[in-house]
Recover the amino acids of this structure.
């Protein structure tokens, strides 16, 4: 029983990472109907920026954290402005292809940047390798602080986003844009600028995910492949649903963690993909998805 | 510029539209036949690779470029072909039987992967193929008894009817011959009702249905054929490389195949050949160019992905029809010199068609 | 007169709580032009989508020559001889006009993909025959000039005609036209009217159309069905329907204001 609980907690922690990346996809998808296949690579860049801020510039973690979010928001907005906006109105596949290309490019460029390179780096967070015992030292549930931080940070971030979307002008404008671009435009919302900000927000969330994941998996150029598992998360939750992305991420994380323990070797890596295939066959619109049928 | 005065309907379905085309394709055939005498062994080997990749890209083009079903797990089909061939050869099956079987096994896998395609489309389909790609890769690792798992699998000498085909120029002829057959097959398909049904599905599923096109059937056929072509290429690839491991058929390979197709030019058969050809030429240029670059830059492993990434992004942004589109423009420029105007090929600006209900 | 060509029997479709079509019944007899009119949101296009089986009815059924078609997949319905056009034009954009029309012959194909792969003699013969039949349609609608043009580059009016041509290339027995004149100028609408008459008289095809342009409706239709909010208002000749108080109210929002 304790074992199971242990697995669920560590699964939920990784699941939170998937959830955050999935959240990034969903935000962009809802706002612009495009899918960003480079989301994982954005997370990787976030990890590297945080790393540089701490080890090269020597900032304390809290400052590095803020610097990363700011830098990632700029990266996201820049990407939208320079690469995505010229493709407005092109078929969805074109956009998918360009994000795939950007991800491919990012993995190449990162290895060429001095100091980042092809090696794996450790992000020196203050809570590295610490554990907390819940229910008695040595006998209760052992939770690594890294996992705990991920879960708590995700909860805080989601709460913050909720307030942002519910109560701020910009958040409401983003919601309106994602519901109906044309109507939002007619109501005087600068749709393009809002879309740019959505990209910024999405990239910033990925930056946070990168910093949270870094203590566990280290920072390296292929770190972004974790982002691929956020697709299953988004589909399970129902693409286009923000609570769906969170639940989907947790589901994938926990299933993966359990599969890693109870099933033969190798199943852990594909558990997410098996889940998504089952989901696509059983309930293609996901847990919270809306029915998307083309209107004629 | 050619003005074709058509007098018979046959002219529109002929393989070659006019004498000029016939001449240039004949010249290409002669060049392909003469290549082993003219080129170094290394160059010939690179051309053989181009031929093999052209076969996969042809399949992917059929699926992504003509049917509009994007596969992010195509390397999985390549693996099916390669491992089937390796396994059958190890068990003493002759190549003339094992190659079609490799195509068949890959084709059946394609049908299996095509099945979710009947229920989901667009983005969801891409994710389904992505998932399948990973699962296939893992399946190869796990079935160690057949595939040798992560340790890989060694292929024996390829001998057909007593002739050694592991020899550079013989293998080159074999690949070229099979590649030409595959191209002909796809060309035939595209000038017949099946090909038109594919294009119809790509451009509008709703109206394809209303025209009497069975979406499920044609999507399955597209997946099966595309996978079978990848299977053929996989079998040839296995013989070319002679040692196969699961990591050669990973997600990155799928992505690179897709990139080749896009760089070559989506929606054109020529693009499926231009893409891999360009890829290998650039790769070669990077390898040669490294020596001239400063050490700090030339020794970087990230150099190649960076260059290909930039090329892809540039193509998507500035030349959506890929290299083939560029070639079309260049040819038109020559044909109607000096009357070419900028913007003759400009795409009409289309506004995003929302797929949403509301 | 034995059986109607098309029968809608107590047809209803609900999207969530919205009753898009509510208990609608009508018959279409062979060789007539039957129009559906009504304000936006009356359920006209929904009825089209029910006939071509893109939607499933919540209740009731559609019969074509006595056979229930509302449970069939859309491509099977098309093979029974029902062709349609779309309100917002659903052509195959990145193909030529000729290829679009040839797709119209699709349900008459009898070769399999393996034969296509080899381009056998029978495929070649079938292709030439398809081409001959498509050329008849091209001549009928005066599309010779656009034969080899890409659809993506054509003006709106021409696309509308190409879509009609593609439907005709199927040689259907029933043709569904969804707003054939929307987006056309007066002259093009005039032509469309002539063609609809010719389709009925010369080709003997029954036409059901959704249309807002009342002058076109009264010119070509034999009978008109007026709908509002998913329910039948009245059915009759164009004159009768136009004089019906319910129709005037639906269009003008209450007789008191008139």
């Amino acid at each position: 029983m304790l074992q199971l609980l242990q697995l669920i907690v560590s699964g939920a922690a990784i699941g939170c990472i998937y959830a955050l990346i999935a959240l990034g996809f969903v935000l962009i998808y809802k706002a612009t109907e495009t899918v960003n296949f480079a989301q994982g690579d954005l997370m990787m860049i976030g990890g590297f920026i945080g790393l540089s801020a701490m080890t090269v510039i020597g900032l304390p973690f809290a400052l590095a954290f803020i610097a990363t979010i700011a830098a990632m928001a700029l990266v996201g907005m820049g990407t939208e402005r320079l690469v995505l906006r010229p493709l407005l109105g092109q078929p969805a596949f074109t956009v998918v292809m360009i994000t795939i290309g950007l991800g491919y490019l990012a993995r190449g460029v990162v290895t060429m940047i001095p100091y980042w390179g092809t090696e794996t780096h450790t992000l020196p967070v203050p809570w590295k390798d610490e554990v907390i015992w819940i229910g008695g030292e040595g006998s209760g549930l052992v939770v690594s602080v890294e996992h705990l931080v991920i879960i708590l940070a995700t909860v805080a971030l989601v709460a913050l986003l909720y307030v942002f979307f519910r109560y701020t002008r910009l958040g409401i404008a983003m919601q309106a844009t994602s519901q109906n671009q044309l109507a939002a435009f007619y109501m005087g919302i600068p749709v393009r600028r809002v879309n740019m900000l959505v990209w910024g927000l999405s990239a910033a969330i990925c930056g946070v995910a990168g910093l949270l994941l870094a203590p566990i998996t280290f920072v390296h150029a292929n770190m972004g492949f974790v982002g691929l598992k956020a697709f299953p998360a988004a589909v399970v939750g129902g693409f286009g649903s923000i609570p769906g992305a969170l639940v989907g991420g947790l589901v994938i994380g926990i299933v993966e963690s359990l599969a890693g323990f109870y099933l033969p070797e190798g199943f852990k890596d594909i558990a997410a993909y098996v889940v998504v295939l089952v989901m696509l066959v059983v309930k293609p619109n996901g847990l919270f998805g809306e029915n998307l049928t083309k209107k004629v | 510029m050619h003005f074709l005065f058509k007098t018979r309907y046959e002219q529109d379905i002929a393989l070659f539209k006019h004498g000029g085309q016939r001449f240039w394709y004949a010249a290409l055939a002669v060049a392909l036949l003469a290549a082993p005498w003219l080129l170094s062994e290394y160059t010939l080997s690179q051309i053989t690779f181009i031929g093999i990749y052209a076969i996969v890209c042809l399949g992917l083009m059929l699926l992504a470029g003509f049917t509009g079903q994007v596969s992010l797990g195509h390397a999985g089909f390549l693996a099916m072909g390669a491992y089937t061939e390796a396994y059958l050869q190890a068990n003493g099956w002759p190549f003339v039987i094992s190659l079609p079987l490799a195509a068949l096994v890959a084709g059946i896998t394609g049908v299996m992967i095509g099945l979710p395609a009947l229920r989901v489309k667009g983005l969801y389909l891409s994710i389904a193929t992505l998932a399948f790609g990973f699962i296939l890769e893992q399946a190869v690792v796990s079935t160690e008894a057949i595939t040798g798992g992560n340790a890989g699998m060694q292929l024996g000498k390829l001998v057909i009817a007593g002739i050694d085909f592991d020899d550079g120029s013989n293998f080159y002829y074999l690949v070229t011959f099979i590649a030409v057959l595959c191209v002909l097959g796809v060309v035939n398909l595209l000038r017949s009702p099946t090909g038109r049904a594919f294009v119809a599905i790509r451009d509008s599923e709703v109206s394809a249905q209303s025209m009497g096109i069975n979406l499920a059937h044609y999507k399955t056929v597209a997946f099966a054929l595309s996978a079978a072509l990848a299977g053929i290429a996989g079998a040839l690839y296995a013989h070319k490389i002679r040692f196969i491991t699961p990591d050669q058929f990973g997600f990155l390979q799928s992505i690179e195949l897709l990139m080749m197709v896009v760089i070559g030019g989506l929606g054109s058969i020529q693009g499926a050949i231009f893409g891999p050809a360009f890829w290998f030429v650039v790769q070669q240029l990077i390898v040669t160019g490294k020596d001239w670059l400063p050490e700090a830059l030339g020794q970087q492993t990230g150099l190649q992905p960076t260059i290909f990434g930039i090329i892809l992004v540039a193509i998507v942004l500035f030349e959506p029809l890929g290299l083939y589109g560029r070639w079309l423009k260049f040819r038109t420029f020559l044909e109607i010199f000096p009357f070419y105007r900028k913007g003759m090929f400009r795409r009409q600006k289309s506004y995003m068609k929302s797929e949403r209900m509301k | 007169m034995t059986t109607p060509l098309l029968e809608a029997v107590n047809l209803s479709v609900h999207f969530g709580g919205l009753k898009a079509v509510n208990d609608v019944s009508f018959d279409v007899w062979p060789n007539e032009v039957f129009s559906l009119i009504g304000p936006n949101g009356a359920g006209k296009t929904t009825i089209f989508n029910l006939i071509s089986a893109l939607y499933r009815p919540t209740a009731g059924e559609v019969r074509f020559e006595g056979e229930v078609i509302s449970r069939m997949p859309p491509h099977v319905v098309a093979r029974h001889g029902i062709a349609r056009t779309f309100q917002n034009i659903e052509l195959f954009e990145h193909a030529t006009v000729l290829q679009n029309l040839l797709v119209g012959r699709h349900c008459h194909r009898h070769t399999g993909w393996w034969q296509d792969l080899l381009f056998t003699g029978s495929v070649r013969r079938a292709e030439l025959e398809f081409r001959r039949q498509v050329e008849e349609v091209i001549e009928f609608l005066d599309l010779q000039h656009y034969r080899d043009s890409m659809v993506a580059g054509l003006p709106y009016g021409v696309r509308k005609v190409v879509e009609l041509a593609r439907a005709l290339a199927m040689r259907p027995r029933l043709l569904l036209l969804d707003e054939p004149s929307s987006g056309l100028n007066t002259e093009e609408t005039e032509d469309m009217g002539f063609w609809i008459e010719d389709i009925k008289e010369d080709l003997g095809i029954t036409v059901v159309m959704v249309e807002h342009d009342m002058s076109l409706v009264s010119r070509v239709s034999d009978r008109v069905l007026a709908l509002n909010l998913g329910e039948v208002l009245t059915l009759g000749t164009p004159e009768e329907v136009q004089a019906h108080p319910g129709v005037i109210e639906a269009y003008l929002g209450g007789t008191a204001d008139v």
